[in-house]
User: What shape does this take?
Amino acid sequence: MKRFTDLLSELDSETSVNAKTASLVRYFGEAGDADALWAIALFSGRRPKRTVSASLLRAWAAEASELPLWLFEECYHVVGDLAETIAAVLPSPLQQEEISLETAMDLLREMAGRSEEERKEKILGIWQNIPSDQRFTFNKLLTGGFRMGVSEKLIVKALARHTGLEENLISHRLMGNWDPYTSRLADLLFSENENDHISRPYPFYLAYALEETEQEPGPLHEWQIEYKWDGIRGQIIRRQGHTFIWTRGEELVNDKYPELMQMAENLPDGTVLDGEIVAFRDGRVLPFQQLQKRIGRKNVSKKMLGDIPVAYIAYDQLEHQHTDIREMSLEQRRQRLEGTVRDIAPLSAHILLSEITEVNRWEDLKVLRENCREIQAEGLMLKWKAGSYKTGRKRGEWWKWKLDPMQADAVMIYAQSGHGRRANLYTDLTFAVWDGDRLVPFAKAYSGLTDAELKTVDAFIKQNTIEKFGPVRSVKAEMVFEIAFEGISYSPRHKSGIAVRFPRIVRIRYDKKASEANTLEDLRKLIS
Assistant: This one.
């Protein structure tokens, strides 16, 4: 655990990619295989389920530190992070007992089947006996809040340098349904028996954003132009008579989309498709908010299957007849994809071929982009026809040209303190628009302001607080902000009756009074 704690400290303090890579390479060289495997798992999002609730951890930590619970809660609100608060208030350890990362993860798994009293005894014992600097790391694992600013690309780069394997190979082998509790590092990285990994997807190829200021990438006849749909990126795999549906976030979602599982049974064995899962009815893609209703469901009811049907818009083929075809040109892969979809489309209404749009002039392409919102598209994709299917985000061959975001001027009415280095600043803000003579909240946002602007907003909040509700403050309705968002739809779950997607702060509108903010009717007019 000490090596892992030191690694986290190094990664948190370094800003250079090369320095972070060097720290990871050093860790993989010094840590045992089991600890290294767990580090890879944690950095790639394979965190175990939380076995103890946050309320119990707060109560136990308050008891162990001999603080009244209300005072612990106040400390928590100031610090903003439960794991850090617990580590800060606990008394010095009785002894310095070293445990490995693997041991810590085994302890967390064992607690799942224990009584509350047994879990309390075990956790208090660990808090009392491990060194202070390692408590924070253990608490992060315990609370399920382990997040570190390390991309999977960085992990792959470090492992490639450590093992001598190619980055593309490592990326592929780290994907799929492997379990750090049952896997071995050597098998994961060096196994060449693909029959053991029939469920494994390919690393996704990601596009760069094409900005208005970008130089036009070349003659349009060299580019495949498609609509960019607002859904869930996913690969459908059909191998050895089995089907697997993987999202870009490496989540296996077979149970959530039974209609796609049924459709995929018609795919030829040894086929992998790349595309978008969308809500789809009556020949139209539905807003993402409709699809979102299915995302969080463990079980999809028959009614939901009828109310929110889905389709798979296929736009690339990565495997054909058990052969990896990613090195082929996009044009060649498209030919195979068209054949695949043509053969199974009559058997299922749940697969569609991504439409290619022929445009000869950039002026016409701009007009096409401006009209995307009418068909629920996010914008356009431009893919170089001669290019291969690469790994990760590579500049130059795949571009996404999204619609300009929608915007509204809104009034800040609530604020909550942030986390980490922003724990002492009110950065999580709630915004409202006018509905008659009252303000109705419609969005929360915390990104978009500079550090200097955040301090200005924080000072305003502290000087203009009306009421406190735990960590939340209501403030005088005086500050106006320009809020951008990607989509908007009706929502009975929200007080305003609408929901916006990806809200963020564009700027503070010092030039506007609260009375000049937008209205709820203005927002309703944006819903197509």
Summary: The domain at 2-143 is CATH 1.10.3260.10 (DNA ligase i, domain 1).
